[in-house]
Amino acid sequence: MRSEAATRADFSQIRYAQVWEDADVLMEGLDVQPGDVCLSIASAGDNVLAMASRGPARVIALDLSPAQLACLALRVAAYRSLSHPELLELIGSRPSTRRDTLYARCRAALAPDVRTFWDGRSAEIAAGIGGAGKFERYFALFRTRLLPLIHSRARIDAMLTPKDPAARERFYESTWNTWRWRLLFRLFFSRTVMGRMGRDPSFFTYVEGRVADRILARARHALVAQDPADNAYLHWIVTGTHGDALPYALRPDVFERIRDHVDRVEWHCTSVEAFLARTDAGSIDRHNFSDLFEYVSPDHYRRMLDQIVRASRSGARLAYWNLLAERRRPASMADRLVPLDDLARRLHDQDRTFFYHAFVLEEVR
Question: In the structure, what pLDDT confidence band is assigned to residue 10 with cuts at 50, 70 and 90?
Fold first, then answer.
């Protein structure tokens, strides 16, 4: 089966320099066990490495984009070559004036084509590789050009200050939720602007409804129901660093576990469809498909699920996100896939990458 997504989007540049899916949610949902065989969309590599931290036998990362695989390869080299504080500097989580030196220490562990890719991106390395993608530049534009028109630096700092739930709601309603916030947020996160500046326009092919209103409602959830002070993703969006709250794969204790198991990570420049077509039946235990399925038609999605189930062991789990287009196991597959809806809903409430409409978790019978 041919990849539908491959025919639409441009995969020549870094689209995501970080993974914008909460690995804490992914890890609890998938429950990766030692010895498992895991399959994951590569993206920038953070969640691939998070899966490796649990000691599986293999973590197989797939991506159609050589640029995304170069992001993963540099992260693997960094976990091998740098200390934890140095990794945070290279990513951009912490300030640094020596990222070129840190990259030079990782460079020897890179394949020649990956060296060539990163050697030509010295400015992105100097600024922190976590900001090198199209999506991160989109957030940087929001942070530097739009957000100052809505809120002062002091008000942004106040939003990031820990508060109890009642105080967060008071702050949101009395101070944050201004008409400028609603108006400019809806403009910046509209289908048109997001498609042109953040995601590929082709990724909206199967999206219906008002995109910005959905994301605005989820933003309120992140600012009121959750504590913004603990949200590394939100912190990056509004400050350009991760602050004291780090994503899963960048935490000190997880760093050591990833380093211990990083040799179990492999990556391939191919589509999910092509890889599954040559994969033995019953060979995969855990799947992370990011938000891949909303880029394809419902019919193509169902055909992919057939491939996935064939390649999975009984009890295997699938995790994926719905950002804007609804994708869930069809009723016709009820005898082969079981939705874990209660767990998925609880995890979605905790999801700090707040813009997703749903987190989906399913288990192979």
Answer: low
Q: What is the pLDDT of residues 207-224, one digit of tens each?
A: 555 678 889 999 999 999
The residue type found at 98 is R
CB count within 10 Å of CB 154 equals 8
CA distances from 17 to 27, 105, 135, 276, 278 (A): 20, 20, 8, 26, 29
11 or 20: which leads in pLDDT: 20
**Beta pairing partners, 319:** 288, 361
* SS3 per-residue string spanning the chain: CCCCHHHCCCCCCCCCCCCCCCHHHHHHHHCCCCCCEEEEECCCCHHHHHHHCCCCCEEEEEECCHHHHHHHHHHHHHHHHCCHHHHHHHHCCCCCCCHHHHHHHHHCCCCHHHHHHHHCCHHHHHHCHHHCCHHHHHHHHHHHHHHHHHCCHHHHHHHCCCCCHHHHHHHHHHHHCCHHHHHHHHHHCCHHHHHHHCCCHHHHCCCCCCHHHHHHHHHHHHHHHCCHHHCHHHHHHHHCCCCCCCCHHHCHHHHHHHHHHHHHEEEEECCHHHHHHCCCCCCEEEEECCCHHHHCCHHHHHHHHHHHHHHEEEEEEEEEEECCCCCCCCHHHCCCEEECHHHHHHHHHHCCCCCCCEEEEEEEC
